[in-house]
Amino acid sequence: MAEVGVIGAGSWGTALAILLYQNGHQVTLVSPTKRDEEIREITAKRITKLPDVFVPEEIFITNKFQPALEKKDAVILASPSPYTRSMLDQMKPFVKQGQKIVTVAKGIEEKTLLNQTEIIQEKIPWADAAVLSGPSHAEEVSKGLPTSCVIGAATKKTAEYLQGLFMSPTFRVYTSPDMKGIELSASMKNVIALAAGTADGLGCGDNAKAALITRGIAEIARLGQAMGCRAETFWGLSGIGDLIVTCASVHSRNRKAGYLIGKGYTMEEAMREVNMVVEGVYSAKAGRELSQKYQVETPIIEQMNQVLFEKKSPQDALEELMMRDKKMESDGQSWN
Fold first, then answer.
1. Is residue 9 within 8 Å of residue 47, measured between CB atoms?
2. Which of 100, 106, 123, 189 is catalytic?
């Protein structure tokens, strides 16, 4: 049995807290933004943001960081990516040397272009940063539906320890050394999902969605390889796997926001309607800047930026994507 702290009591943090409890671990769940009276209500009613899902009584719920960090074998950082830096500032006094911090957020910081583990390493360099990612909607994980993910860590020892922490009959976990590739996939797939949702809102059909998924992973892989990531990461769970589920699922907040944009909502109106953090909006600018920095062509990411921030109509963006210059599907191929 391990002692685990989960920072962030949103849907994903709660689902993972329940999974870890069911795996036999002692779990503390932190909801930092809740007032004391709200924590007392949640503790009494065991309510969550997930429909028909309740927090087991054995999980300790608090709004304080210290109980979730001190003497813990691992800490799961499940707050939305825009708040990672501020969360780490509050966690920092209680993190011990070598403590494992696993980020499960998906986003690249807009100002610094750092991914989540890089922010952890910058803010708390004595921590052992890792990432968990893959096609894993909280609504399904919390109900015990079969799910597979990947753990990225700096060492094999840490990756295998965390693999054992999460692994269950309904939650299969693989390991990988490619943290940067995992996190780039996790961030950019949200931007492609916004595009897929926008196409749905325009009524484009399944053919268009399949094309966006396929060409989207090609963009992400091109960018990732230019950044030194491993090509196979993008064809795995954190790449094409997570991209498929985020573009297609009714649970996807990024797809929903894109759908509303396709229906004529502004970006701000769509985010208000979804009423959750739409991480693809925050990652879109970072994706564009990375593409420019590494001189990689990413037309879907570029068009989504223009729709989100430059008031370009979704229909015009679609037409521009369809009418780009003729080219081969894959670079490096030739006829004999």
1. no
2. 189
329 DSSP assignment: S
Please give the DSSP secondary-structure letter assigned to residue 33: T
pTM of the predicted structure, to 2 decimals: 0.92
Structure tokens at 264: 């004529």
pLDDT tens digit sequence for 152-195: 999 999 999 999 999 999 999 999 999 999 999 999 999 999 99
Residue 237 DSSP code: I
CA atoms within 13 Å, Cβ hemisphere of 191? 30
Give me the phi and psi of 253, to 5 degrees please.
-70, -30
Indicate if 106 belongs to the active site.
Answer: no
Q: What SS3 class is residue 84?
A: helix
Residues 6+ apart with CB under 8 A from 168: 19, 22, 23
Query: Residue 103 has which token pair?
Result: 């980020």
CB 184 within 8 A of CB 204: no
